[in-house]
Write a structure and sequence with these properties.
Shape: globular
Strand content: 35-45%
Order of helices and strands: HEEHEEEE
Strand order of the largest sheet: 1-2-4-5-6-3
Helix content: 10-25%
């Protein structure tokens, strides 16, 4: 398990854009499972949408990408730990159900390719065992922090 302090040391994100609360499973080089507890206190809910708060799909994808970033970082040799993982792109993204305050978003990702500094992951986000979003993500290992 990886707690929030270690996640904050790995990812270049900070509040309000850090969208992973905990890593509950990780197999470096293979797969990861991350958790995002969705609360009404999120800064986007008052405007998305007033009277019917729904987590924006792009932020669900971003939460998946950040979870993949933790997996990629933990799959790197120690000498690359000063580098940053950058999100390059998404393909085949589908949103299945809305995510609302009180939900616990579970992001499950697996590495599908790795060549030089490019990494591919297939992922899905679930709430209560139901897929709410899925897609293919692409990332790149960048310059040192």
């Amino acid at each position: 398990m990886i707690e929030i302090k270690e996640i904050m040391a790995i990812l270049p994100h900070a509040y309000p854009f850090l969208l992973v609360d905990r890593i509950v499973e990780i197999e470096p080089g293979k797969r990861v499972v991350g958790i995002k507890n969705v609360t009404y206190n999120e800064p986007f809910f008052p405007g998305h949408f007033p009277g019917r708060p729904i987590m924006p799909g792009v932020l669900i994808v971003e939460a998946m990408a950040q979870t993949a970033g933790v997996l990629i970082f933990n799959s790197l040799p120690q000498e690359d730990h000063k580098k940053t993982v950058f999100f390059l792109g998404i393909d085949n993204v589908r949103f299945r159900k809305p995510v609302i305050p009180g939900d616990q978003l579970r992001m499950e990702l697996e590495i599908t390719r790795h060549r030089q500094s490019i990494w591919g992951c297939k992922g899905k986000a679930l709430v209560d065992g139901n897929v709410v979003a899925e897609g293919d993500l692409l990332a790149m290992l960048g310059e040192e922090k």
